[in-house]
Amino acid sequence: MKKKEIIIIAVFLIVVGIMAFAYKIYSDSLNKETVQVVYKNKVLFEFDPNIDKVYKFDGSYGHMELEVKDGSWRITNEECPNHICSSVGWVNEQSYFPIICIPNEVYVSVKE
Fold first, then answer.
1. Backbone angles phi and psi of 8, in degrees to 5
2. In whole angstroms, what separates CA 22 from the centre of its chain?
């Protein structure tokens, strides 16, 4: 190989290495999402989906419980007529599906 070819290959490898490092930092920042629980268009609280916990709070219709486990969350207990929000099941950052409880005026979604 000529000296010019070696320099081009070295520069190419350096650029690829920088791009891989930037992508790693970017993807790590995507995995640090927070999730928020909103009641009547005001944030009740935010939580880290990677910390297992059960949150208890009240909506317009009654009491609700939110279970967070292994990066996913779900409504486990709620006082409302149809229990639709608990039937949604487990939600996580990849599904990006909000849980909405209309009678309680509460929704749970990834913070934008």
1. -65, -45
2. 21
Q: Is the model's pTM score more than 0.70?
A: no
Burial of 80 (C-beta count, 10 Å sphere; 0-12/13-18/19+)? buried
The tokens describing 13, both together, are 């490898």
Residue 42 identity = K
Question: What are the φ/ψ torsions at residue 6 (nearest 5 degrees)?
Answer: -65, -40
Question: Any idea which residue has 């009678």 for tokens?
Answer: 103
Instruction: Check residue 27 and give its pLDDT.
Output: 62
Residue among 46, 43, 53, 100 at smallest CA distance from 73: 53
Segment 47-80, tens digit of pLDDT: 999 899 999 999 999 999 999 999 899 999 898 8
| Dist CA 98 CA 74 (whole Å) | 10
Q: What is the pLDDT of residue 20?
A: 81
